[in-house]
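User: I've been trying to design a sequence by hand for this structure and keep getting stuck. Would you show me what you'd pick, starting by listing the structure so we're on the same page?

Assistant: Good idea, let's start from the same input. This is the structure you sent:
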């Protein structure tokens, strides 16, 4: 405070500058440690490439090629110079379907994961911070979701709500948060035992201030690593639900491609390219996110850095 009672703007500016420098130093250390994880760098490179191709699909291809009334290829045509990955049962380019399908598969995977991480983080922090009967109630609900098979519950929700993109996102997100809640609760309990939380309580900090200013920043590394790993599971879950016919039939996704390939008799016709290509796309995406998640775990957990 200045002598006139007004806030000391110079002090505030210097405090913000110090905080910004600390954040820059933390990011620099994080990137330095992450670069040492070679598999993590490989996964990040592949993930960025896939995301760029998915976002650039409208620039690289013509969306009209998805319309079955405007196709120029033959049914289940083998790969050639004209169609590098062959065609589907309607004569559409499989390469075109792969590029546009990546947008839906990644959108569902990321959105459903964010929903699951949001629920899991909220439940975990609340259970670890408040404790008592409230934490017991939250953990019993969490245990119920852990015991139930996620895929079966997601199939039931998707079947009840009807096939749509929103249904898939909600079904995956609502059934995938329990494991994260357990992890975040354990980390919250560890953070709550640290001295600076006791000082914050002694100075009169409320529950919201403690959870958002002290607990949440300390559990965010664990949330980030869990999010990266959960995206891979969400992409697989979306592919499974779409393969079972519970996805949006009006949108192209990799799981939907596998479902149509199976129902159109691609195996009988020997159209391996129609089955193999979306399967490999799912495999590559899951592998990239898994490698990034494992690398983040190694960076944030000092006991794993040497592995």
């Amino acid at each position: 405070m200045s002598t006139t009672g007004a806030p000391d703007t110079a002090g505030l500016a210097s405090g913000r500058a110090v905080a910004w420098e600390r954040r820059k130093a933390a990011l620099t250390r994080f990137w330095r440690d992450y670069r040492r994880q070679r598999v993590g760098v490989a996964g990040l490179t592949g993930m960025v490439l896939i995301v760029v191709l998915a976002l650039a699909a409208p620039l690289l291809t013509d969306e009209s090629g998805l319309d079955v009334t405007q196709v120029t290829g033959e049914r289940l045509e083998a790969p050639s110079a004209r169609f590098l990955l062959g065609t589907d049962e309607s004569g559409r380019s499989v390469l075109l379907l792969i590029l546009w399908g990546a947008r839906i598969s990644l959108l569902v995977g990321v959105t459903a994961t964010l929903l699951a991480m949001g629920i899991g983080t909220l439940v975990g922090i609340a259970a670890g911070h408040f404790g008592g009967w409230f934490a017991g109630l939250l953990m019993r609900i969490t245990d119920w979701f852990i015991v139930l098979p996620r895929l079966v519950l997601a199939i039931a929700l998707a079947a009840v709500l009807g096939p749509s993109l929103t249904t898939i996102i909600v079904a995956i997100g609502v059934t995938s948060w329990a494991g994260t809640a357990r992890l975040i609760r354990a980390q919250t309990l560890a953070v709550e035992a640290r001295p600076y939380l006791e000082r914050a309580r002694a100075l009169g900090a409320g529950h919201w201030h403690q959870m958002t200013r002290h607990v949440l920043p300390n559990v965010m590394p664990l949330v980030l690593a869990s999010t990266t790993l959960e995206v891979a599971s969400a992409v697989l879950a979306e592919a499974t639900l779409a393969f079972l016919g519970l996805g949006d039939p009006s949108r192209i996704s990799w799981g939907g491609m596998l479902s149509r390939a199976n129902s159109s008799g691609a195996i009988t016709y020997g159209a391996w390219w129609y089955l193999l290509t979306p399967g490999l796309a799912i495999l590559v995406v899951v592998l990239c996110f898994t490698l990034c998640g494992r690398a983040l775990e190694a960076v944030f957990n000092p006991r794993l850095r040497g592995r």
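That's my pick for every position. To get oriented when you compare it with your attempt: The two ends are 50 Å apart (CA to CA). The CA atoms of residues 30 and 226 lie 17 Å apart.
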